[in-house]
Amino acid sequence: MDCSRATSQTRSPPPCERSPRACASLPGRSVGSRRIEDLGEFDLLDLIRAHLGQRLSTTVRGPGGDAAILETETGRLALSTDAAVEGVHFDLRFMSLADAGWRAVVGALGDLSAVGAEPRAVLLSCGFRGELEVASVEELFATLDALGEEEGFDLVGGDVVASPHAVFFDVVVVGRLTLSSSVDRSGARPGDLLAVTGTLGGAMAGLASLRRAGKRPSDPSPAELDYLRPGSPLRPGIALAACPIHAMTDISDGLAEELLALARANEELAFVVDPTRLPVAEGVDAEAKESGRDPAEMALSGGEDSELLLTVLPEDYSALKRALDALHPATRLTVIGEVIGAPADAPAQQRTLARSQDGEIRPLALRGFEHFRRSGR
């Protein structure tokens, strides 16, 4: 028997058809010669999602929103994850390790607040440099335990690894949904009002102040605290989700970027913001004067404000505000714009708009934070 001939006639399937693990070892499987920086964060996420399937009926909502939703025998769970890397998300020259960890966990909790979920558990993996002082690690976890006491979650596990070049945190949050349905980014309707909780631009102003000082002050200003220890929007988010709102997301990458996220999630709709109506945080005006910037620009493009952006019908807004005032009187709610119809084929950037002082509506030129974005892209 001619073994070589027999082998050619009964050729086994390629490794990728036999095993995804075997596929991972094959060279040259990248498509084209594009770099990640050619795509940017959000186009990269779209590409990743295109490769993912959904096989389980228990997956109510997969990737693409603020949190995934899973069906369990005892109810629905919301899950999300977030990462924070030294040199990208935080700088230990002017903040403590506890500040950095607080910011990472609160950022992930913001995803739960955007779907109205009550937090139950947090898992935290940490990468530390060996020269960090043990006392700073103790302070970190004592601080996070106090945050858990305040927000109602347990830190139930995680991992600790050596990271010689940069400290990092990887956070997983698990929450419980008490409502039969959950709000997300994609439910906006024409005629809705755009509204935000709290104030905007404070974290950006605080970061600029901290960078100038080059160290953490013993008595941080309100804007510096907005950056170092942002408040969690969890409780307001849970209260708002129980009201007749149509869409909601947390403002983590800047208001301008979150408006763009709403436009991506809602085809045939445009989101019009009025910069003169933005609730500017304390310290923003002073920082704008110091840096020669416009306060409204800082409120639009500054990220990490730990607030919520939502849409609601005009006739429901007063009742919504009364409900929020009754449960969380310290949380401000401000109408900043409106939702209007738009052509189905209009790209998301052309459906993220600003109303000028003369009443004309133009595309919003400002952007918030996006990983991998190159200048001019």
Q: Topology, pairings included?
A:
Layout: H1 3-9, H2 15-18, H3 20-24, H4 36-39, H5 41-50, E1 59-61, E2 68-72, E3 75-85, H6 97-114, E4 118-128, H7 134-151, E5 154-162, E6 168-177, E7 193-197, H8 202-213, H9 222-228, H10 234-241, E8 245-251, H11 255-265, E9 269-273, H12 284-291, H13 295-301, E10 307-312, H14 314-327, E11 333-341, E12 352-355, E13 361-363
Parallel strand pairs: 4-5, 9-12
Antiparallel strand pairs: 1-2, 2-3, 3-6, 4-6, 7-10, 7-11, 8-10, 9-11, 12-13
Helix pairs in contact: 6-7, 6-10, 8-9
Please describe what this structure looks like.
Residues 1-15 have low confidence and may be disordered. A hairpin with a 6-residue loop joins strand 1 (59-61) and strand 2. The longest helix is centred in the first third of the chain and has 18 residues, at 97-114. Helix 6 runs parallel beside helix 7 (134-151) and helix 6 packs parallel to helix 10. 35% of the residues lie in helices and 23% in strands. The protein has 14 helices and 13 strands. It has a seven-stranded mixed β-sheet, sandwiched between helices. It has two domains: 38-177, PurM-like, N-terminal domain (60s Ribosomal Protein L30, Chain: A, 2-Layer Sandwich); 185-363, Phosphoribosyl-aminoimidazole Synthetase, Chain A, domain 2 (Alpha-Beta Complex). The radius of gyration is 23 Å and the shape is globular. By secondary structure, the protein is an alpha+beta fold.
